[in-house]
Design goal:
alpha/beta; 2 domains; Nucleotidyltransferase, domain 5; Rossmann fold
């Protein structure tokens, strides 16, 4: 059966690639992820008896990105068959091929059976060791995509230095199907920050000289200590609920909810389902008083946050910061959160892009640190 695709240059470059490692470095909206989803569908149409693995650091983020694109494309082409979809095991069967989806938060799958083709979505999220384990169990080709927000990374040192590696750099201009509104937003990066424009507009390797949070460490879990939540409301941008534990003047943080297009009722239901302690302090974006009031009526101990950005950042930077290693979106924001620059000068104002987690973190830490002294603190067990 022939497939008719609306494909970009990015798809064509990947389709022609014969190297073992095909690295897609690109900016926002360049079609790199969508093109790789198309590529795996085409490859599964053209061969039989192969195993294709599509992976990301965590299964929830994979499900919301590459996995969603894959099945949307199948349905758009009219070739999706629900009988071929094992939703329990996250495996789809096509022409005798198996396409499996798993996150690196499922370690038994990382070290399990071999595969023929591998696609690593947002590859810069993975550790070098995770990549090596996947590489050892892949027979034919490995495709990966990422935004180059890291100045230094194992992809540059261990993959792109190999003779059997191919680099495909793409930008939003490679995607003729991108809505004009999105193009306008991406080109707005030029006015906001040269480093963001370089990374997300031009798809070029970032530099860290203007990064705001440069000193933080990954941890396996949060310790016991004083707990507080920060909440940044969103719609097109994600709504971010962040758990913070304060202990010995150190800040420990964990991403709890990070999701776009959820109403306040959806949010309250999610918090109820997650058993968020209603007695624990929660500080939310004070620009949304009606949403705060609705959550308060649902029984939560929520207050408007102190939104002094510079002081809030200083409060966090004055303490050691530890981040739960499974908090994928939090880590990405911390890596790219930067000061604005103008005429080669660094300004005391952050770039307002991809700041949902970091805003919620600031709301929690700075507001809690400056709450009235008589306010009661609550403790939490490790998470």
């Amino acid at each position: 059966m022939e497939l008719t695709l609306k494909a970009t240059r990015v798809f064509n470059e990947n389709y022609k690639a014969t190297e073992r490692f095909v690295v897609n470095q690109g900016g926002t909206g360049s079609s790199k992820s969508y093109s790789l989803a198309q590529l795996f569908i085409v490859k599964a149409q053209q061969t039989q008896g192969k195993v294709f693995s599509i992976v990301r650091k965590s299964m929830p983020t994979l499900r919301a990105t590459a996995m969603r694109d894959f099945f949307n494309i199948l349905q758009g082409l009219g070739v999706y068959n629900e009988e071929n979809h094992n939703k329990t095991e996250n495996i789809y069967t096509m022409h005798g091929n198996e396409i499996e989806f798993f996150g690196l938060d499922e370690p038994q799958k990382v070290r399990s059976r071999r595969r023929d083709y591998l696609w690593i979505n947002e590859a810069n999220e993975l550790s070098q060791e995770s990549f090596r384990q996947l590489n050892m169990r892949t027979n034919t080709q490995i495709f990966m995509d990422f935004n180059p927000s890291d100045e230094f990374h194992w992809i540059y040192d261990d993959v792109l230095t190999r003779k059997d590696a191919r680099l495909i750099v793409s930008t939003y201009k490679d995607n003729p199907f991108l809505p004009k509104e999105i193009v306008k937003e991406i080109e707005h990066f030029k006015e906001l920050d040269p480093n963001y424009w370089n990374i997300y507009g031009l798809g070029q390797r970032g530099v860290s000289s203007v990064r705001i949070y440069t000193m933080w460490e990954l941890i396996d879990s949060l310790p016991e200590g004083e707990m507080v939540y920060g909440l940044d409301f969103g719609w097109n941008h994600p709504t971010a609920l962040t758990r913070v534990v304060l202990k010995d003047d150190d800040v420990y943080t964990q991403e709890v909810i990070y999701e776009s297009y959820i109403t306040n009722q959806d949010l309250i239901k999610k918090m109820n389902d997650l058993n968020i302690d209603k007695n624990t302090y929660m500080f939310a974006d004070s620009a949304e008083p009606q949403r705060i009031e609705e959550i308060k009526k649902a029984g939560y101990n929520i207050y408007p946050a102190d939104k002094d950005v510079k002081k809030g950042i200083d409060t966090i930077k004055s303490r050691r910061l530890f981040v739960d290693k499974a908090s994928t979106n939090a880590i990405k924001e911390l890596k790219s959160y930067s000061w604005k620059t103008k005429d080669d000068r660094v300004l005391d104002e952050p770039v307002k892009i991809r700041d949902d987690f970091v805003d919620s973190l600031r709301y929690a830490v700075h507001s809690y640190m400056n709450k009235p002294k008589k306010a009661k603190a609550y403790t939490t067990k490790p998470f």
